[in-house]
Known about the structure:
The complex is a heterodimer. Chain A is about 75% helix and about 0% strand. Chain A starts with a helix and ends with a helix. Among the domains of chain B are: about 80 residues, Alpha-Beta Plaits (2-Layer Sandwich), CATH 3.30.70; about 240 residues, no CATH class; about 140 residues, Rossmann fold, CATH 3.40.50.1000. Chain B is built from 23 helices and 26 strands. In chain B, the strands form five sheets. Chain B has a seven-stranded mixed β-sheet with strand order 14-26-25-24-15-22-23, sandwiched between helices. In chain B, strands 6-5-7-13-8-11 form a six-stranded antiparallel β-sheet, with no helix packed on it. In chain B, helix 6 packs antiparallel against helix 7, helix 10 runs antiparallel to helix 11 and helix 13 packs across helix 22. Chain B is elongated and about 105 Å long. Chains A and B meet through helix 1, helix 2 and helix 3 of A and helix 1, helix 3 and helix 4 of B.
Amino acid sequence: MSGLAILIPIALFMGLCGLGFFFWAMRNGQFEDLEGASHRVLIDDEDAGESSENSDAET
Amino acid sequence: MNAALPLHDAAENAACEDSRFAVPTMRCAGCISKIERGLSEMPGVAAARVNFSAKQVAVSHAPELTEDRILRAIEKLGFEAQILAENPLAEDRGDTARLLRALAVAGFGMMNIMLLSVSVWSGAVGVTRDLFHMLSALIAIPVIAYSGRPFFASAAMALRYGRTNMDVPISIGIILATALSLYETITSGPHAYFDGAVMLLFFLLAGRVLDGMMRDRAREGISALLGKTAPGAMVVQGDGTTVWTKAVDIQPGMTMLVAAGESLAADGVIEQGQSGFNMSMLTGESDPQMLGKDDAVLAGTMNMDAPVHVRVTATGRDTSIADIARLMDEAGQHRSFYVRVADRAARYYAPAVHSLALLAFVGWMIAGAGWHQSLLIAVAVLIITCPCALGLAVPAAQVVASGALMRKGVLVKDGSALERLADADRVLFDKTGTLTMGQPRPIDTDGLSLTEKMVALALAQSSRHPVSQGLVRALVREGVTPAELSSVQEMAGDGVSALWEGIAVYLGRAEKAGAHISTALTIGEESQLIEMTDMLRPGSKAAIAELTQLGLSASIISGDRIEAVSVVANELGITAQAGAKPEDKVETIKRLGDAGHKLLMVGDGLNDGPALAAAYVSMAPGSASDVGQQAADSVFTSDSLMPVVLAVKAARQTGRIVRQNFALAIGYNIFAVPLALAGMVTPLIAAIAMSLSSLIVVGNALRLRGAAK
Lengths: 59, 709
């Protein structure tokens, strides 16, 4: 029984954290461009020359 | 790399303006970086951010930098772009976001209450059970108050107008279940239905969210295709200077200076100059008409060749474009009578559920179970029959199907369009721009040598005439590069002449015009005829054959001349009606509708707008006018006509899956309702039955992933 007094608040707290995080993510526009995010991984930030070459080949 | 791009000199602190552009042609990571980098290097641009899913770029820039210049910069980077007006769909998107938040809260509540409920089911008794019920109540009541609002609001609305919908039994069930559970909790009873109520909310919200997301996605796709309508004109002042005037501020009697390539913002009469006008917005015909002094010109038509002065005779709501818009509004009215499958089901289902629950209550009262026990059973009946699976049956199937169609380039605006598409039993095609590409193309360019091609391309590039533009498109596709010309001159309506390495070259009207539209290329003394034709869309014949096989007999309805229409009709082997004005098209559609046909209209032009709105269901190609795209239920973005067939097939398959889902949901009720009526449904059974039926329905809907093959 005494374990419950700790475990239930922890469960609730973690759930609320998840909920709060989801709300934050929505407000922050994290779900605005789901497809774009998967492409952005491929953009090479350091080497501008190479990435523009790639885009020339693909477009 | 997700952070905003670095700020640039000029635009550091100054109030930045935000503009949005549609860039439908971006396809890869390279395009994203090219656009973002290229734009942020531009002086005055603070940040550029690509939204790849919506195919849009948001640019934050200094007020001095006009949208026009950014547009040109994007074009210079190698992408077609359009300026987008202030997001008119923001409100609708907010709707889905609200539902999504409600879903998240319901999900949070459901998981935590389940955690507590599982302990109760596994045998917690006495103080522990009461404590758990109390905690459940603490979580459930705010969650239900927050997440239930969409249903409560809709139910209240229906009741206020004396009607009932799916949300009424849902709301009553949830409120009764919560109230009763609260009573149980306070009197330390054995059963609380908090878990059932919250779970019900969760599944129903999931259905609503899916429905909303599908609509948003399609709308976003379409708004990315839409351009901005003619925003204004250069108005000539008393002293001869011109001032840019917005369309709403233009008054009859003013004189507009319309440059070549501009659309007219108002109806008027030509005062000075002569030029060819592209009337395709009104007639669907792309061949320009030569108009001179005292000829009437209409808003929305495009001036092709030379600048003209136009005295304004009618503006805004009085223009013939506005007339068409009104016709379209009226035509679209009757379509709103269509009742969606889910609502039709609700019409029978809701009263049945109400009376069943009431019967259970009365029956158990008569049997002497006491009001508490009877009410508990009535609530169990309400919860168990509450259409979780029914709420998911339709949207889940439609979301999966429309996602599959979208990958094939067909945007369906909402679920009801998918349902209506499945019912269609006749199809009417517009000719120009729908069955045909709407742009003349050379029949073959093999007769031309490479130098001739290079000269022809260079000449054609300097004209906006549809024939020239068709030639440019064909030659560019062949990989021809333009030759260098000097002293290029365009003679309005006749052609383009120039000097190429000292030789006079000319591209323009042919002396001997045959059955086709053709153009002549002259280099020095030699002359070559390039025959052009408005080609059929690839796969038109196969598409029509397949549609016939599916039971949709096809015919053509066109505003074009009978000779031009009969050529296409003969080639495709279908019947045709030629010379139809917009109101004639609506008339024909009404007549066929009254005869019991469910008509699919496929058209593109502004002149098809009313017909698209009047038809039972309609589709437009992506090349269609803004009006056409807005009026149609669905837009397909490919050159081929095959997407029409694909959409009909997918819609029918969706219909089948939806019916299966209904059967599954009702089958579940047949099994569960007797249990509930007998008073044997505990919260545990309700929870299991509800999630199981929902999962089965969603799983069945997922089979539609391959629907558009």
